[in-house]
Amino acid sequence: MFEEIENYAKENFIPIIRPNSREILIAEVKKLSPSKILEIGSAIGYSGLCMLFASSASLVTIEKDEERVTMARQNFERYNVSKRVQLITDDALKVLTNLAEEEAKFDFVFLDGPKGQYHKYLPLISKLLVKGGTLVADNVSVMGLVDSTEPIAHKHRTMVVNMRKFLSEVTSSSQFESRILKIEDGILIAKRK
Ligand SMILES: C[S@@+](CC[C@H](N)C(=O)[O-])C[C@H]1O[C@@H](n2cnc3c(N)ncnc32)[C@H](O)[C@@H]1O
User: Fold this and answer.
1) Domain 3-192 CATH assignment equals 3.40.50.150
2) Per-residue pLDDT tens for 152-175?
3) CA 20 to 30 Å from 52, out of 29, 75, 94, 158?
């Protein structure tokens, strides 16, 4: 549906959600029919648009890269959904901390920001997500490295260790009922109990 954005992302090496993962995300949004969605990692607005077109929800989306924010804003305008979107340009940890202090609540969270930071976001997301709400997190396999028994190259080690910590915390948490789908770069779907 947003083919031009897909092509732009491909040509400009902007990472956006992959096709099968996107379909899972859309199916989860449709299943829950949320009214407030939080997204960490807007990039140029592609996954945000997919979620907006799959629901009648409003979207708060966080992105620290100003150039990408400009493009995301243009894309939301182009598809006439700007009124439903609050685009925040800042570091996600800072924004999530502020939202939690304000006691903001969301019924759907799409986590697609920096992979080495998911474990830091989890306690904040737990506060922000209402009971019965859904968390979807992308790239939890980190290029297959999370399940690898081989030594991890130094440049990926912290990210992989942190992602393992995140996954272990969500899957063992009494607050979440979760499953990991091993498709593409791995998707976690967790329901807040
Ligand atoms: C995988 S991309 C998001 C793709 C987007 N969700 C989509 O599928 O269309 C991850 C984004 O997170 C952003 N990002 C990285 N670190 C961040 C941080 N600390 N705070 C906010 N955004 C961050 C990157 O600039 C990048 O655009």
Assistant:
1) yes
2) 999 999 999 999 999 999 999 999
3) 94
